[in-house]
Structures are given as C-alpha cells and as structure tokens.
Amino acid sequence: MASSFSLVTRTTAPIEDLFDISLNIDQHVASMDQSRESAIGGITDGSITLGESVTWRARHFGVWFTMTSQITSLERPVRFVDEQVRGPFRSFHHEHSFTREGKTSVMVDSLTIGSPVFGKLAERVVLVPYLRRLIRQRNHRLLTALNAAPGTEPQSSIWPVDEASALHRSETTALIGRGGETWERASRDVLRWKVKTRSGFTVDVPQRVSPDTRLMITARVFGIMIREPVQVATVIETASRVGFSYRTLPGHPVSGEEAFIVHRDGDDVFLTIRSLTAPASKQPWRALYPFLRIVQIVARRRYLRSLH
Questions:
Q1: Alpha helix (H) ranges present in the chain?
Q2: Residue 240 maps to which CATH number?
Q3: Are residues 173 and 139 in the same domain?
Q4: Hey, CA dihedral for 86, 88, 90, 92, is it positive or negative?
Q5: 156 assigned to some structural domain
Q6: Are residues 29 and 63 in the same domain?
Q7: What does the pLDDT look like over 88-112, one tens digit per residue?
C-alpha cells in the first residue's frame, strides 16, 4: 500500500510563473540545500519538459540516495507530473496542479509514495511528514525567487495563517501606553530601530528606516558577537498604524522576516512583533537553530518592553 498526501500553496504570483519555476532544475536545487541535493544526470540545469528525466542525489536521514525521475505528463500552465524511474521508492508519483481563484493562484502538490524501507505506520509517521516539510521548504524558496513569498504584512491588522508555509510563525502584542503623547513618541521611535537598540542590539545605520535599505545588526549572546545582515522590506505610516518589516540576508543566523508595528485603538497604543523564521542554509547556524529559537523568544520579550 502506498501513502498519499497533498499540500496547498496560495500566492499572488501568476500561475504561469509558478508552473515554469517549478520545472526549473536550478531553482529546485537551490530550494533543497538543506539535503545537499544536486542534479547529476539527465537534464541538470535549466528547465525540464515532457519526456525528459533528471537524476538527483541527496542526503536524507543521514544517508545518500540517488533517484531518477521523469516528466510523464505536462499541460502548461495547469498541470505536470514527475515520477520515479529508478530510485529508493517502490513508487513515487508527484502531481503539480495550478489554478486561479480570483486574484489568487493555487498550487497543489499531490504525492503518492511507496517506501521499501518504512512500514505503513512508520511511512505515515516519519516519511510523509518529512516529505511534507521538504515540499513546504521548496515552495517557499520558489515563491521567494518570484518575490511572492508570504511576509509579515505590517500594513495589515489581521495576519492570515499560511498553513503551507515552512517558516515558524509568531505574533505577540503588548499595550505600551495611552494617549497622543505615547502614540507620537512610539510611532517615531519604532521607525528609528529603537525596538532593537533598546533591547541590546547595535544597528550600524540607526537612522529612520526606508525601503530596500541594507544594514548590519549586531548582538552579543553569552559574550559572542553575532552579526545579522538584513534588508528593510516594507515601511508603513498611517494615522493609526506605523512600522516596518525587514528580511534576513545571507550570513544571518536564521532565515525569515520580522516586523515591528505600533498601532492604536482609541486611546490605547500597542506594539506588535511578527516573525517568520526558518533555519539558515549554512552551518554552524543550521545546527544551532534550536538554541537560536530560544534566544529569539528572550529577545521578543525585550522588544515588547522597549517602547514603554
């Protein structure tokens, strides 16, 4: 008996772009750096199409595997199928489908797998969740390459949950005061990195934030200096909502996005912290990710006290 599961990803990217990037060998390899996957035979770069095959080599569960897959069905831009020709599975069938729902593009990954190693129970408990995480990671990287990955959306009062996201999601809010004076001070300070600098971080360009600015944030953890390259993504300023988000750059200890938002409801003024976090692609940060998650929780508590 084989095991099956589906994963739904919604985005604003056009389905034609999603379809094409999903067939790109280079983008797939980049999205699977965690397993050190590479294309070693057949179509090894560029796009693959109907009837063509590629041989993959990757490390999973500490063991190196080789699998050759072939595109057995293709109808651009709505559907294609890749199947194992040779490899470690009894069977491997991956259907990719693409549809539109209004302004939203919906990408569905449907996998049916049969493993010669795992029993049925272990297949469902171990292999299926593992593959689901890999597909989520892959899809997030593809959306990032299309500049369509879901972010922290500081402009929105409601932050929808993206169940297909491979990133850890966190949102916390604290009341920081009341009245117009508190609002003016907090909305000014949040745009000048005060949430970071008052929490023990150093910002090399602590001036007012502006979109696309790249800068270096420095932190000391147990006497160790950690450098965090980032880029400002979105800046918002309205009568009741002020803040910004920034994305991590290569070399950052984690991968993802964070947002600091000051907003008010009547006379009450709040600070909201949002973050999307995943392990960095490079060592030693990837191995240290569980520790960094604890550090992140401690830092978030400091953030919420920074604008009082």
A1: 15-22, 25-31, 120-122, 128-145, 180-190, 194-197, 289-305
A2: 3.30.530.20
A3: no
A4: negative
A5: no
A6: yes
A7: 999 999 999 999 999 889 999 999 9
187 with 257, same domain? yes
User: Could you read off the pLDDT of 176-189 as tens digits, one per residue?
Assistant: 999 999 999 999 99
Place of tokens 């005061």: 177
| Rounded Cα distance, 279 and 35, in Å | 13
The range of the structural domain enclosing residue 253 comes to 168-305
The 8-class DSSP code of residue 36 comes to T
Would strands 63-75 and 104-114 be described as parallel, antiparallel, or unpaired?
Answer: unpaired
Place of tokens 């996957």: 37
Domain membership flag for residue 104: yes
Q: Which residue has the tokens 């990408």?
A: 107
Residue 22: closest CA among 100, 93, 94, 92? 94
* Model pLDDT for residues 5-64, shown as the tens digit of each residue: 999 998 889 999 999 999 999 999 988 887 889 999 999 999 999 999 999 999 998 899
What's the structural domain count of the chain? Answer: 2
User: pLDDT per residue over 192-228, tens digit each?
Assistant: 999 999 999 999 988 899 999 999 999 887 778 899 9
Q: Is residue 152 part of a domain?
A: no
Does residue 62 form part of some domain?
yes
